[in-house]
Write a structure and sequence with these properties.
It is built from seven helices and seven strands; from the N terminus they run αβαβαββαβαααββ. It is an alpha/beta fold and 195 residues long. A seven-stranded mixed β-sheet has the order 3-2-1-4-5-7-6, sandwiched between helices. Helix 2 links the parallel strand 1 and strand 2. Helix 5 runs antiparallel to helix 6. The longest helix has 20 residues. The radius of gyration is 17 Å and the shape is globular.
Length: 195
């Protein structure tokens, strides 16, 4: 849905921030074709290597750049689209990262922020109970890592909700922000337009 909604087309340049395993980068690459460019980034070198190698093994050679979303090493107005999926939650200074996303976008560009968000209020108690009780136990049983799944639940709770993230994107200089709630708001896609 995020790739479709971002409007990526043949020949575009796309920057995928905190792209880790390269899932979105691969989808973007199939849309931009040989005349376009996708750059995969992550602050974590090990994650970036996993994504780069996975894409290479699938026959896609995509530039991979280890960098911090708060200090992007790219020229202003270089990309047609910038995306970050389930990564903004882990950025220390979200305002700075959003401003950097806006800086590297060309006029007419779109930034896509796909992230956990605030679920529809009537579902919140059950969702919280699941997130803080069931999810960590599943993490312990399935992955042998209860702490990471507890962190996931905690980081979702403190991440800005749809209204707050919209305001932050507008403050970062986006001319218009659209919000698409998915899974009753448990996940939201924010599209920031730069005219």
């Amino acid at each position: 849905f995020a790739v479709d909604a971002s409007g990526v087309r043949q020949g575009m340049r796309v920057l995928d921030l905190a792209g880790g395993t390269g899932d979105l980068a691969e989808l973007f690459a199939s849309r931009v074709g040989p005349s376009g460019e996708v750059v995969l980034t992550d602050i974590n070198g090990a994650m970036l290597a996993v994504g780069r190698d996975r894409l290479f093994n699938a026959g896609r050679i995509i530039p991979a750049v280890q960098c911090d979303a708060e200090k992007l090493p790219f020229a202003a107005a270089r990309f047609d689209r910038v995306s970050i999926a389930f990564g903004l939650r882990n950025v220390a200074n979200k305002d700075r990262a959003l401003a950097e996303m806006r800086r590297v976008l060309k006029p007419g560009g779109v930034a896509a922020v796909l992230e956990f968000s605030r679920i529809w209020a009537p579902l919140a108690p059950a969702y919280d109970w699941y997130s803080f009780n069931v999810l960590p136990r599943l993490g312990r049983v399935v992955a042998g890592d209860e702490a990471s799944y507890r962190y996931l639940a905690e980081s979702i709770r403190v991440h800005p909700d749809q209204v707050a993230l919209t305001a932050m994107m507008e403050q970062a200089g986006f001319d218009r922000v659209e919000v698409h709630n998915l899974a009753a708001g448990a996940v939201a896609l924010h599209l920031g337009y730069h005219y």
